[in-house]
Structure formats: C-alpha cells, structure tokens
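Materials and Methods. Structural model of Protein disulfide-isomerase TMX3. The 425-residue sequence of Protein disulfide-isomerase TMX3 from Bicyclus anynana was retrieved and submitted for structure prediction as follows.
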Amino acid sequence: MNVIVGPFLTFIIGINVVTSSKVLELSDKFIDISGEGVWFVKFYAPWCAHCRRIEPVWAHVAQALYSSPIKVAKVDCTRFPAVATHFKVRAYPTIMFIKGEFWHQYSGERLKDDMVNYAKRMVQPAVQRVSHADSLGYLKETHNIFFGYVGKQQGPLWEMFSNHAEKYQAHSWFYALSHEIAHELNPPNDSSVFVYKEEETFYFKANPEVLEDRETLNNSLNKWVNSERFGFFPKITRSNINDLLATEKYIVIAVVLENKLNEITQTERDFKDMIESIIRSNKQELHSHFQFGWMGNPELANTIAMSELTVPHLIVLNSTTSHHHIPDDDPVLMTPEAVSLFLDQIHKQVAPTYGGNNWMVHVYRGFFETRTTLINMWHGNPVLTALVFGLPLGFLSLICYSICCADILDADEDEEITETHEKKD
Ligand SMILES: *[C@@H]1O[C@H](CO)[C@@H](O)[C@H](O)[C@H]1NC(C)=O
Ligand SMILES: *[C@@H]1O[C@H](CO)[C@@H](O)[C@H](O)[C@H]1NC(C)=O
Ligand SMILES: *[C@@H]1O[C@H](CO)[C@@H](O)[C@H](O)[C@H]1NC(C)=O
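The predicted structure was written out as tokens:
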C-alpha cells in the first residue's frame, strides 16, 4: 500500500515519504492541503533535544496508525517556518491533531500508547454509540478507563454527558449504551452516567436537590468526570499534575527516583508497590477523597515540599489549599496500616500541615526554586554558569566602579566650589 500511496502523495502535495518509518515529511504546501483528511503532526526543529528523543516513538506511532485514516507526519519548522506560524506553534516539539478546521494540541505524556489512543479518540465522534450486545466485554478488555451513559439519548443528563464528552475527548473515551447492553453493570432504572475504571464501575451520584438545578448538576458532572478520568495509580508528571489538582481530592504521591532507563531500586519499588496496594485494596472507601499516584522524579516533589526529600518518600497534597502533609516516620519503615492511619488523620484534618498558598510560602518557594536551578546549572555546566553570572557581574562592577569614581570626582568639585564660595565670602 505504501508503494502506491507514497509516490501519489509526493506527486500531489510535495511530500517526501520516508518509507521505512511511515512518517510523512511535510513542507509549506501542507498549509493548503491540511483541510483534507485527518493529520497527526509533529512540529519539530532539528536542534531540539526533546524532538530527537521522541523521534523513534513517533515512528512507532506512525506504524500503529498505519492502517487507520490518520496520517502521521512531521514538519521541520526551521525549514518551513510558515507552517509553524500558520498553526501557531510556540514550542518544539508540538504535537497536533488536525481535522479540517479543527486543531487540537496534544498535551499528554509522549508515550506511544498514549498518543495512539489520543489520535484514535479524536478521529471519532466524542460519544460513540454501542449497539452490539458483546461490545461491553470488548470495551472492558481494551480500555483501562471509559465513561458510559445508560438510557434514553435525550434530556438534560444526556446533553450534559455529550458536552463533557467533547470537552474531555482528548483525555478519555465516552460511550452511550442501552440498559440491555449495560445490564451486567447493574445500572439504575433511570438514565445514568458511570465510569468503568480498572475492572470496577462507579456511578455518578448527584444530590436529589441538585437534579432540579441544571447548572449545578452540570458543574457537579464536570467535576466528577474530571476527577474520575485518572487511573487508580497514575504516574504524576509536570504535564498532568495540574489536572490532578483540579480533582479537588487529596493527592497521595509515592516519590521515587527513576534513572535514565526508567529503573528504580528494589527498596523504592517495594515502597511504591506498598502504596499502590493500599488504594487497590480499598478503592470504594478511599477513592472518593484520595487520588493516589507516583512520581519518578523527586524534583517536582521537592518544589512542593520546599526541601530535599529523601527517596522513597510519601507526600500528600491538599488540592484545594495547596498544603501538603509528610509523615513524621521514615516512609521506608511504614506499614500499609501506618499509611492508612496517616491518611485517616489527614482526612480528619488532624495531621500536621505544611506549605500552602500564602505570600511567605510563595517567596520561599521562589527562593528554593532559584537555588535549585542554580545548583543544577552549576552541576550541569560550571563554566557556562560562571560565564552567565560572571560576565554581568563583571560589567556591573565596572559600572559601579565608574559611578562611584564619578561621584568622588563630582564631590571634589562640589567641595572646591564651596571652598571658593567661602573664600569669596
Ligand atoms: C427497576 O425496574 C425493574 C423492572 O422494570 C423493577 O423490578 C425495579 O423495581 C425497578 N427499580 C427501581 C429502583 O425502580
Ligand atoms: C455544562 O458545562 C460545560 C463545560 O463544563 C459546558 O460546555 C456546557 O455548555 C454546559 N452545559 C449545560 C447544559 O449547561
Ligand atoms: C484541604 O484543606 C481544607 C482546609 O483545611 C479542607 O476544607 C479540605 O477538605 C481539605 N481537603 C481537600 C481534599 O481539599
């Protein structure tokens, strides 16, 4: 198929097809033809290290989407800056889903499966209707998490579900099912919304008084969808931490240190597994108040805690106040019971609280981050650091010196003038 499509595309739109990776290389002409078909495009610059890092991943994405209608491509923005300007690209690499007038920038992890799932979702309608009786089993097998609507496809709840499906399409799957098809999930008789998450089903429960008020119902559905769209124990990074904080739950984080090959030590692995086992064995009680997860890089946790945490560590964030909680005991020695007790104290608001959002904390956090950045810079490249800070300092001292000297000269003159005045007097 590649043999036929390749030369054909090259001929029509000036694309050089790199047959081995199946990633299409685009040029300026892309601006004119981007409205045709569905595109998944990586905007890159050859000098950018992050771009080079995802190069092999991007080739795998292209391979995985090869039989789909989604065309996986890349644009070298240094050679074709007009394309970057047209699509308002601000950073490299930018990954964008383009379907006619609709553009959407991918913001998730740059992992093959995440990107492939994202593209497959974006190409479908936001809510997909399930009509085949066996489909539920298939969905359960193929998706870790999906949202479902059960009942007649009309009325306020249906409209809100459809709206939120569009809003969160980039992050999750949304399906509409009949009562018969959803039967084994024991749906209530009325229309209802559920999330199926790692083999467990949770129904959206609105307060009866809220049901009357559309806006409140809509807001609570919005909050619920946003807080349920994460797995029970996701990896927490800079790209999803803000979304996690929007869940308004306590965020319970196991902090470990991954090396370049994404490996961690046995002690850290045991600790991480122990924390994960707590949520897995108490999903129904814990998950409405606590979102668990783990971090492979203590830097982000240090910024939150404003100190150098040893790894492994446990940190719990209050997502509404930005306060955090750290256990008094050495986390490595904690048992699941001790951790559960600690969480219970946090929930009852009797555990010691640190940080927060007041100005003192902001100033200190700023200071801590600057210090960390400088230290990292010094470790990374002492010569460059010395130059960056040394040169301006050198200039500054020159300027100071000349200002001071000028002052002294001026002062002398002044004095002389007064002296002459005195003499005249
Ligand atoms: C739901 O419907 C079934 C069958 O129509 C009925 O037996 C059951 O009582 C209903 N449940 C509720 C809570 O209305
Ligand atoms: C519900 O909220 C979403 C955004 O959260 C909004 O797009 C939608 O228009 C709202 N729908 C209704 C029916 O109020
Ligand atoms: C965070 O702290 C506030 C104030 O102490 C409290 O009202 C809230 O329940 C706490 N929990 C979360 C998850 O926000």
